[in-house]
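ok here's the first one, seq then struct tokens
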Amino acid sequence: MPTFVPEPHLLDSPRGRPWPVAATGPRAHDADPPARADVVVVGAGPAGLAVVSALWHQGVRDVVVVDPGARPAERFFRRIDALGQRVLRSPYEHHPGVEGFRDCELLDFARLHWGRLTAVERREIRMAQSGHRSVVPVDVFEAYCHHLAVSHHVTGRMYRATARSVDPGPDGVVVHTDRGRVATRFAVLCPGEERRPAPTSWWGGGPPPAGVGFWDEGVVHDGGPTVVVGAGLTAAHLVTGALEAGSRVRWVLRADQQRYQCADVNATFFRPEGRARFDGGDRARRLDLLRAQRRASIMFEFRPRLEAAEADGRLTLHRGREVSSVTTGRVALADGTAVTGDRVVLALGTVFAPGAGLLPDEVVAAADGWPDLDPRTVSYARAPRVLAVGAAAGMALGPSARNIDGHRLATARVATAVAEGLRRGHPLVPADVPVAAGA
């Protein structure tokens, strides 16, 4: 079957366009958070934004959001800009808007700002309206996130602070931050994902050698040769950015090939039939689905540019090669090949924290890397006043948990459980679930 390859200009949406004041919003409070709140949300990325917006619709307004950033989703967009990324891989229907309410969705927002869009972007909206795959400009997505933050009063509840630990108790939770503690009835953890560290064997652990950096640190190109290690969307952006800056690129793919796929997760897992397929399996089956459905991927739109660069010698690919060591300007492969350049950039993917580091280990109760969560409420089984949205909810929700739209699906359960718990004066604790001591 032939593969449809969209034209590369779909990647070229403008970045940094002005948007209405209502879509930019105020900054977070640079002050100590309040001592008490009904709900504390840890993290103000797309997941945290979705949670606070959904709680607003449930009538829950006494919410405190703690995050080191000055604006919602600040780190998310800082990482995107470090890559020079201008469009998202996820389609218009994947966004942090509120599930189940007649709210402004991402496609609605883009259409409201039709006059600010390019002809290509308008065509993509028409594709989305027709049910076809389309790409979303980062500019539009960022303005939409700010619109959600303003219209659901998120930023006014946000405090610049870093969560250090979360201590669940029988009647509530205490969230300790670097700017004081907050006593709360419920805590929702939305910490996002961290970059995957390099194997210790590559340089012996610790900080990387000089001239070796990670994908989210930003790369300044001076035209010299660049080595990129990684096989997914992030690596594709790094390679493309280096080529556009006039650099020659050596691309090390430890996989057999770069993968031109448009989504990390099969679309059925965002729909009831897919979730039923996941819920209906035993633990071994669910683990298999989680491993199989988390794939490295890059968009087809990259393909013509990268193939052209490979054909004219500006791009050299080293496929299916394991890395044995990394030093300044040099990546040694297991077969004895040395790949050299002025700089080495690592794009090894991301990893999530199941709650370890914030919650006591006995509360996390991780097995196979996944925390013990109640799938009905996405709360920790041993601390039902603490709930999770994001990748940590994978074993409860399925492969979609790590995706932006998966955050929205988890949020619908979390917001309902928290609102009901507040109304009843206690959390939803299933009778057959033991609660850890001190929880």
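and now the second one, same deal
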Amino acid sequence: MIRITSIRAANIAALLALAPTTLAAQTADPASDLLAEAAAQDDRTERVAKQIWDYAELGYLETQSSGLLQDELTKEGFRLTPGVANIPTAFVAEWGSGGPVIAILAEFDALPGISQSTSATRNQLADKHAGHACGHNLFGAGSLSAAIAVRRWLEKSGTPGRIRLYGTPAEEGGSGKVYMARAGLFDDVDVALHWHADDENSAAARTSLANRSAKFRFRGISAHAAGAPERGRSALDGVEAMNMMVNMMREHTSMDSRIHYVITEGGAAPNVVPDFAEVFYYVRHSEADEVRALWTRLEATAKGAALGTGTEVEWEIIHGNNPLLVNETLARVMEEKLRRVGGVEYTAEERAWAATISESFGDNAKPLDSAAQIQPYEKSLGYGSTDVGDVSWATPTVGLRTATWVPGTSAHSWQAVAASGSSIGFKGAQAASRTLTLMAAELFTNPELRAAARAEFDAARGADYKYVSLLGDRDPPLDFRK
């Protein structure tokens, strides 16, 4: 088991030079060469993760973050195809020839409305209105380093095959990967690998919820709210009427259903009847067909609200993700690789920092030592949603999570932003990079594993499977975060 500490590649080389017996034993183990290649990228992982954390760019606006990843790949000899699927910040980078095609996904978008320094106590940044509260800066950097480590191993070993890094924008509400899957960019991939920031280490086969979102826009008639109320028709009334009906609808949905909204615009002054208001809705369920059924009911509430308030309504579907199709054949091998790498251990300074963060969780705090542990393997339903789901219906897909955050941290929190820019986050990304490197090499050299994963994939999809996107044929909403 390899613990992720502050040791860098140079330190590792020095230690091996002092221990020739250990070196001989390691060279007899193919995994040791792979881990050495991955460890050699540790500085790159930290540097890139910190830079993307600083950028904190929102979905489809990640010009600097995407450009940084592409620059790093170009220096390593990857063939770049930028702007794929009509998305300026999306790209595909490939190295190698022949053999199987193994893909690694890389995300890099931040979340709006949340900011935090790397302080262990709440410290909003006045000049920053977004933050990496889901750790996508780590996701992008760790995946980048894994792709480069695999590329160097392929070249040194002479192993045939192609390693691809997919730069996938706007996971947070933009469904960047869905447009890429819809464009057929994963159709020739043998296996796709991904990972995510978390507060624990796990390669469990966890599914996700399908989801769809839309902005419902109500239009009414403005008037003086006191002087001529009879002449006005409030668009905000339309939004509130819709929300009231949806909240009543919740009582009559199945247990896996999730419906949530935020009013994005509701007027500027109480004495002006607002002629425009907007509400942004998400609908989720474990089954894509149930999302569609719930959506029909949601649209009916919008129409009813407009009719009852004398307003007009239209809506724009913003994103939609299919549920994640797990592949247990691959997941069990990924878990084996993760256990080989091991979890994250804190220095004394990091432990003190983590303890301060942990105090903010109250009863939700977890033991700090759990960051060094690997969670038991299981198949379960996750209640989040991800556009990796659509990739998983295009090609066999497997992922993992590493302890980039203090145990007990919730995603989309200020604590997650703080850890994602800290050494704790960087160590978690390095653990993920090592695991992905081992997994990719296994897939390149193990045709039986690839065949078994494909057989499970084909059986799960069914003989008559046909891909259908939950966002329809719309173009990418490149301005949805502006």
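notes on #2: The first strand starts at residue 79 and ends at 82. The first helix runs from residue 9 to 17.
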